Amino acid sequence: MKIIKILFCSYLLTSLNIAFAQQDEKMNKYIDDLMGKMTIEEKIGQLNLVTGGEATTGAVVSTDVESKIKSGSIGGIFSMTSPQRIRKAQELAINQSRLKIPIIFGMDVIHGYKTIFPIPLGLAATWNMPLIRGTARVAAIEATADGLNWTFSPMVDISRDARWGRISEGSGEDTYLSARIAKEMVIGYQGGDLSSNNTLLACVKHFALYGAAESGRDYHTTDMSLHRMYNEYLPPYKAAIDAGALSVMTSFNDINGVPASANHWLLTDLLRKDWKFDGLVVTDYTAINELSDHGLGDLQQVSTLALKAGVDMDMVGEGFLSTLKKSLDEGKVNLEDIDRACRNVLVIKYKLGLFDDPFRYCDPERQRKNTLTDEHLSLAREAAAESFVLLKNENQTLPLKKQGTVAVVGPLANTGANMPGTWSVSADLENTASLVEGMKQALGNSVKIITHLGANLTDDAALQERATMFGRTIPRDNRTPEAIIAEAIQSTKQADVIVAALGESSEMSGESSSRTDLNIPSSQRKLLEALLETGKPVVLVLFTGRPLTLAWENQHVPAILNVWFGGTQTGKAVADVLFGDVNPSGKLPATFAQNVGQLPLYYSQKNTGRPLAEGAWFQKFRSNYLDVSNEPLYPFGYGLSYTTFDYSDLTISKTSITKEDSLTASVKVTNTGNYDGQEIVQLYIRDLVASQTRPIKELKGFDKITLKKGESETISFVISPDDLKFYNQQLELITEPGVFKILIGPNSRDTQEIEFTLTD
Ligand code: NOJ
C-alpha cells in the first residue's frame, strides 16, 4: 500500500512538473513574441510606474497619464481605484496603445482595504497565524473587487528602535515572528492562483534593512555587518519570497555605502542569484531620483545604476522613461538589461491573467457584494480584540461590569478618522465609528457612556497639525488646558469608572513620523493625573503605533490596555475586551523601553563580555547605565490576561541529540484564574558556546492555546538541528555541536529553562 502511495505521489509530482513546464513554455513563447514586436521605447515604457494621483508619498506627482498610456509609456499605475475608473484606464491601453499591453494597478493595501484591520504591529501582537492570513485574504478580496491587482505589502522590516515611526507598519523586532507573519501575508494575498480575480500580487518591502535607520530617523542610513543582516534582518524578506511573493520593493536607505535601489549586491547577487527570486523588482517612490541626493550622480547616471543593479520598475520618478534610451545609445546600458526588466514586468502581467482578460478585476458587482461584508467586519472585530495587549491590571480593575456610567475621556475618544491607523489610504474615514460610537453600538443600553475631550492631543497646535495629516483630524479646543481638564473632571462626577482614551494620533507613527520623545504628550499626561485624582477607577485605553515609554503610567494607572490602532471595528472591540466578552490575549511584538535613552532595545541581544550579574541593577565596570536599569518596562512577548496561567513540568524527551535527530520539549500550562482564556506559549533557545557570539535567547516557536478555567494542557515543541542554525562569519548556515538552553514561558523574560546537547 505504502509503495503504491509513493508511486502515485511521484507520478503526481512528475505530472505537475510537466504541466508547470508546459505553462512556462507557453508563457515564455507569448512574451518572446510580444517583445519581438516592441520598440525600445515601448519596452522602457513598461518599466514606468506612475501614480493615479489620488495618494502620494513624495514631492513628485505623475503627469499626462492618459497620453502616456496611449503611447505605451506606462507599465503600471498605483493609487487609482474603482472598477469603472480602472476599466477606463485599461481601455486606453487596450484600445489605443499600439501593442495593447494591459496595465497593472497597485495600491498600498497594508492592513485591509475598506474593512480595516489593526495596524501590522497590532496584528503581530495576535501571534495568530490563521487570523493574519485571513486578514490578508479579506484585503485581497476587497481590493481586487475595487479593480486592483497589486499590493505594496507585506512590509517586513525588522525594527528595534521605537523612535522610527514605521515600526507600526511591520511585525516588530523579532526575526522569527516576522518571518512567520511574512509568509502568512503572502499566502493570504496571492492565494493559490494569482490569475484568479480575487488574488493580489504581493510586494515584499522595503528591501532591505529600512527598519534599522540610524537614530530612528526616517530614510536615514543603515550600516550593518553582513553577519547581523543574515542572522537577524534578512530572514523575513526571504521567508516572504520563499512563500511565493512575486514582487519586491527596494528601500530608500543607504546600505553600507550603497543605497538599496542602486545596490547590485543586494538586488542581483543576493536576491536573484542566491535566493533565486524570479519576480519583479520595483523601487520605492522616486527612489531612483533620490540616488542623486545620496550623491551618486545625475538622473541619467543613477537610472543606469538602478537598472544595472537589478531594478525592473521605476516608481513615479520617470528616470528610466526619460534617460534609458539615451543611455542605451551611448552604450551605458545594454539592451539585455532593458529586456530583462521588461520581461519581468510582462511575466507578472501574464501571471495575473491580464493578457487573457485585462478587465478581470473590473466587476462593479463584485465591488458591491464583496466590500465591508458582515463576515469581513466580524473578522476585523475579532482581529482588533485579539491585537490588544493588557499591560497592567491591578486589583482586577478589568473587566468592567456592564452597568452604571462610564466616562470615556480624551482626545482619541471621539475621532473616527484616527481609528484605522496609519497607512489605511483606502479607509472610509467619514464613516468609521469613533471609540465612543463603537462602544455604544456594542453595549447598547447596558451602560451609560458620557464623554469629553479632556485635553488636546498636544498643546502644540503646529505639532497637532503635523500629527493629524491626511484627514485624520482630532477635535481641538482652543481654551486653556486647565479649563478643558476642569470641565472634563466636572463631567466625570456622575461616572462610576473612567476610561482615558489617550496616546498617539494615527499619524504620529507611520512614514516620516519619527519621534524623539516617546511619552504620552504632556497635555494628556496632565489630564490623566487629574482623572486619577478623582479617586475613581481609571482604565487607560492607549492608542499607539509604536512602543511608547510608559514608566509613569505603569506606576500610577491601575489598568492599561494597549489597543494600537485597531481598524474599522476598534470601538466595538474595545468594548468587547473592557467588559469581558473577550479576554485579552495579545502579546508584545516589540519591547517597551523604560525611556528613550535605552533605544534600540530588544530581547535577543548579545551577552557582552561584561554582563550584569543576574538580578543586579547596577555594577561598576559592567554593561549598564548609571540612571536606569537594563530591563525594559515590558519585555518582548509580554501581555496579561484576565485569568492567570501557570507553567510547570518543563521536560525534554532527550538530553542529547545528533545532527540527524530531534527532541521534544514539553511544558504543562494551567489556567489558574477565573476566566477562560488564550495564552501564547513561547519557546526560546540559547546557544551557550559557539564559534561566534550568539544572542542570549531567540524565539524559535510559539503556540497560541485556549484553556478553560482550571484546565491544563501539555504543550510540546519539536526542536531539530535546523532550529539551531546560524550564519557564521563566512556566511555559511551552520549548526555547531554544543550545549543549548531551551527557555519556555509566557514572554521573553519569565521563562523556565532546561539544557540539552547537540553532538556531532
Ligand atoms: C513610500 C513608502 O515608503 C512605501 O511603503 C509605499 O509603498 C510607497 N510610498 C507607495 O505609496
Largest sheet: 6 strands, mixed
Report the portion of residues in β strands. 15-25%
Give the strand tally.
26
Helix content: 25-40%
Small molecules bound: 1-deoxynojirimycin
Provide the residue-averaged pLDDT: 96
List segments where confidence is low: pLDDT < 50 over at least 5 consecutive residues: none
Global shape: globular
The oligomerization state is single chain
Structural class, please?
A: alpha/beta
Order of the strands making up the biggest sheet: 11-16-15-14-12-13
Radius of gyration: 27 Å
Please give the count of helices: 22
Spatial gap, N to C terminus: 36 Å
Write the layout of secondary structure elements.
Elements: H1 2-37, H2 40-46, E1 48-51, H3 65-70, E2 76-78, H4 83-96, E3 104-107, H5 120-124, H6 129-145, E4 150-151, H7 175-190, E5 203-207, H8 226-233, H9 235-242, E6 247-250, E7 254-255, E8 258-259, H10 264-274, E9 280-282, H11 287-294, H12 299-309, E10 314-315, H13 319-329, H14 335-351, H15 364-370, H16 374-387, E11 389-393, E12 405-409, H17 435-443, E13 448-452, H18 461-466, H19 481-491, E14 497-503, H20 522-533, E15 538-543, H21 551-556, E16 559-562, H22 570-578, E17 645-652, E18 656-657, E19 663-671, E20 677-687, E21 698-707, E22 712-719, E23 726-727, E24 733-734, E25 738-745, E26 752-758
Parallel strand pairs: 1-2, 1-10, 2-3, 3-4, 5-6, 6-9, 12-13, 12-14, 14-15, 15-16, 18-26
Antiparallel strand pairs: 7-8, 11-16, 17-19, 19-22, 20-21, 20-25, 23-24, 25-26
Helix pairs in contact: 1-14, 2-13, 2-14, 6-7, 6-15, 6-16, 7-9, 10-12, 11-12, 12-13, 16-22, 17-22
The structure holds 1-deoxynojirimycin.
